[in-house]
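Running this now, will post back.
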Amino acid sequence: MLVIGVNAQAAGPTGGGLKSGQQWTGKDKRLGGNGAMQKLQSEIVAKLNPPLSADQKQKLRTLSEKNKASLTSIREKYRSGDKVAMRNELKKIQDERKAAIESILTSEQRKSYHAQLKAALAKGKSERSKNNPKNRLTQS
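Update: finished.
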């Protein structure tokens, strides 16, 4: 008896994916398209103790505008290209943003920022773990 395997890609779901001539819009959440880390950082900065001064708020607004322009530029650059390279550049921008935020904050504010960021990331990790189908069998 001879068995032959055939590998072929079945037609995708109707209406799914990009059509011929369409371009990627940068909304793929797996590639940072939703700005989740920027939103989280902004929420944490808004809740800092002691609160931000007017000068710090202005510096952060300027940083945010610059960061948004950089992210848009990177997404345009890799619209239909190398997603791994794009992810690496997005990570670099996120790291630079975090360092810039920390340089604007006082030492007390940095302590508050780090504590809140650590708690938020741990909460997110815990929620992702609970939602992972592999873990559902082991949870009570």
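The radius of gyration is 21 Å. More later if anyone needs it.
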